[in-house]
Amino acid sequence: MHRRDKVNYYLDLAEMVLQRGTCLRRNYGAVIVKNDEVISTGYVGAPRGRKNCTDLNVCIRQKLNIPRGERYEVCRSVHAEANAIISAPRDKMLGSEIYLVGIDMGTGDYVEKANSCSMCKRMIINAGIERVYIRDTKNDYRIIQVQDWVLDDESLEGIFGY
Q: pTM to 2 decimals?
């Protein structure tokens, strides 16, 4: 039997977590890991008690033709990264890693050039997470050093999207 490498194992967990997501546009799953221990998971969904987009059968961002990476204040959902961070104690996140997988709900394919939005990047930085692993294909992924987001502050440039 072929043993799955550890990074893809955690990305597979994130992919399983995203199946709970309720976004009609793109679902993401996130898993925070420290010292080979899963600290927290999160998926895209409306705040507790509010109706999800899947319940309403409408994505307001899609309806308004809002481009990817822009105007997240219009979105009904809390992002996967944010939900994972909300559910984890900060001391456990210091020096941790977050694994992220996104699926385009229209095609069923992995989200091309997936990345955290600017709000989630800020939360990841403040949570003390050190690395972000993002799945590109079933076996390929990128590694982002969170310190790079600190040094390359896109909020100073006024750049939208990703």
A: 0.93
DSSP-H helix ranges across the chain: 6-18, 53-56, 60-63, 80-86, 90-93, 118-127, 146-151
Residue given tokens 């998971």 in the structure block: 41
Question: Which residues of the chain register pLDDT less than 50?
Answer: none
3-state helix, strand, coil in the chain (%, to 5): 35, 25, 45
Q: Cα separations (Å) of 142 from 33, 66, 96, 128, 156?
A: 16, 26, 16, 19, 24
Structure tokens at 27: 């679902």
Give residue 79's pLDDT: 95
Please state, as a whole number, how many other Cβ atoms lie within 10 Å of the Cβ of residue 81.
Answer: 26
